[in-house]
Design a protein that fits this description.
By secondary structure, the protein is α+β, with helices and mostly antiparallel strands. Helices cover 43% and strands 18% of the residues. Strand 6 and strand 7 form a beta hairpin.
Length: 357
């Protein structure tokens, strides 16, 4: 009688258990998997040798071997789970230490907390003043077609009035048909068109946003700057309403000792038109370099909506009248904070920017 191939089975099983217990890391255990329960395991070798047994012995031996395999696989799975748990705990521990490092770094080197820039803050303050006066706030695109930036505003192609705005053209479509808006006035056209289409006149809105002109920067000008446009269209609106809004705004935003004045001017989209000036806040009207010794600073333009604009957007000028104004947000920031040279706004010098937190 030959000895059963399973005579040593319990010894093999206990050796395999030792081998499993001996694996100190998950990596080590997985590397050993093929020898413990895989193709190169003693259990697989024994499985093959069962073929040599007499059929009546084979069934018993098979069941015995199957039991041994289940036992070893169970121990293997348990060890694997516990090594995985240990590895996860280690990773969490490592993360916790990382966090600790960040906290230490913050203590050692305090990081400054940012705040809105002076122009963004000024825009919000201006919006607040106008909202308090009953205006809504609207938005428009910075890239405009010639129609919105010029034609609908009664500035036909090749008209000399185009010289008032040194324009950046966008290289898109036909030459000189797409522009970076030179003012916020095109947003008036969008609002008017939308209100006509939806039948929602009247309009009482302000429209802040960035504008672009091919200007050489100096103490009062930037090539990329910000304006806030105002538009009121209602029944029975007169120039007195416009002057009242401008003066109310000036006192609300700059204080009771700063006044406004309107001087006759020309804009193609308003008639009559005016320039809107305020007392120079740097010299309080005495005359200085910033106001070119005049005591006044120009903030922007305004006027009663020209009938040609109403015609362009299909508003009946016999029923409706209105006014518009547009002025520089950067210029307001400059006057409010008495900044002699506007170029400081874009220098990005943190010593300057920190003063306006
Ligand atoms: N859009 C004009 C400018 O930037 C200002 C303006 C706005 C004038 C509204 C009249 C009415 O020069």
């Amino acid at each position: 009688m030959t000895t059963s191939p399973l005579a040593e089975l319990s010894t093999h099983v206990s050796q395999l258990r030792d081998r499993i217990d001996g694996a100190q890391t998950l990596e080590q255990l997985l590397e050993d998997e093929v020898f413990i329960i895989g193709k190169r395991s003693i259990l697989s070798t024994l499985q093959k040798s069962l073929g040599a047994l007499a059929p009546e012995d084979r069934k018993d031996a098979g069941a015995q071997l199957q039991g041994a395999r289940r036992e070893v696989e169970g121990v293997f799975a348990q060890r694997r789970a516990s090594l995985e748990r240990a590895q996860r705990a280690l990773a969490i521990e490592a993360d916790r230490l990382d966090l600790g490092d960040v906290v230490v770094a913050q203590v050692a080197l305090p990081l400054a907390v940012g705040h809105p820039g002076i122009v963004a803050a000024t825009q919000r303050q201006l919006e607040d003043v106008f909202v308090a006066m009953g205006f809504t706030v609207a938005d428009g695109p910075e890239v405009e077609s010639d129609w919105y930036n010029f034609e609908a505003l009664n500035i036909p192609p090749a008209h000399p009035a185009r010289g008032m705005w040194d324009t950046f053209y966008v290289d898109l479509g036909e030459p000189e048909t797409v522009v970076l808006r030179t003012h916020t006035s095109p947003t008036q056209i969008h609002l008017l068109e939308d209100a006509v289409a939806a039948g929602t006149l009247p309009i009482h809105s302000v429209m802040p946003g960035r504008c672009y002109r091919r200007d050489t920067p100096d103490a009062r000008h930037l090539a990329a700057f910000h304006q806030i446009e105002g538009l009121v269209v209602d029944r029975g609106i007169t120039f007195a309403d416009l002057a009242g809004v401008i003066e109310t705004f000036t006192h609300a935003y700059f204080g009771a000792d700063i006044s406004s004045r309107l001087r006759p001017a020309y804009f193609p989209f308003t008639e009559p038109s005016a320039e809107f000036e305020i007392t120079c806040t740097i010299c309080r009207g005495a005359g200085c370099r910033t106001c070119s010794q005049t005591g006044w600073i120009e903030l922007g333009g305004c006027g009663m909506l020209d009938p040609a604009v109403f015609a362009a957007v299909g508003v009946d000028g016999r029923e409706w009248s209105g006014f518009a104004f547009g002025f520089g947000i950067d210029r307001c920031a400059q006057m409010r904070h008495q900044i002699a040279d506007m170029r400081a706004l874009i220098d990005n010098d943190v010593r300057f920017l920190r003063q306006f937190s």
